[in-house]
Amino acid sequence: MTSSRALLDAAQLDGPRSEALLTLLAYNGLRIDEALSRDIEHLGHQLGHRVLRISRKGGRDALEPLSPLVERALDAYLGGRTAGPLFLDDRGRRMYEAQAWRLVRRLARRAEIKSAAQLSPHSLRHTFATSLDHAGVALQDIQDAMGHADPRTTRRYMATHQHLDRHATYAFAAWLRRATDTADQPHVDQ
To answer: Catalytic positions, please?
Structure first.
């Protein structure tokens, strides 16, 4: 989480485009093509939420709610633009994936993240899933947020299976200890 915060801080210092793109990727867990293929016209409101209409893998459409932080970053970047690609490159054309990869790695180096050379926009998606898992969000809700049809795909993103301290054996041992302690208590008639 510390490296994610450092990366987002570096993006903020880099400028509005970097901040908007990395904030959207980090807070919504989007695939890079889901973000870069969008136009400003895909932004809207629904049921009191600011949303971004995206096209998921397989061509499925979805609405992504934008947190106030993401909304502010996007609005600051757009600066009043009302049409065209959501993310532009330095020449005013739609940003493409290789540019986003270079941006993430440049910002990771600036943030002094040790694994900067291995990071990609997809790394933010992994962090999104893992962070939701650590926050106690249910697997089905993470699956929905990621746009996965199969929960097994979602589980591959999450590091839960790698965290021995969260293994079910510990929950069972604690439950058994409580059950045993309760059974050992003298029964008092009332």
So the answer is: 31, 57, 122, 125, 148, 157
Sheet holding 61-65, edge to edge: 43-46, 49-55, 61-65
In DSSP notation, 39-73 reads BGGGEEEETTEEEEEEE-GGG-EEEEE--HHHHHH
What is the dihedral sign for C-alpha 83, 86, 92, 97? negative
Tell me the per-residue pLDDT of 7-61, one tens digit each, with 9 for 90 and over: 999 999 999 999 999 999 999 999 999 999 999 999 999 999 999 999 998 888 9
Please write the tens of the pLDDT for every residue from 171-185: 888 888 888 877 666
* 163-189 burial code (b ≥16 CB/10 A, e <16): eeeeeeeeeeeeeeeeeeeeeeeeeee
Residue with tokens 């439950």: 175
Residue 186 tokens, joined: 């003298």
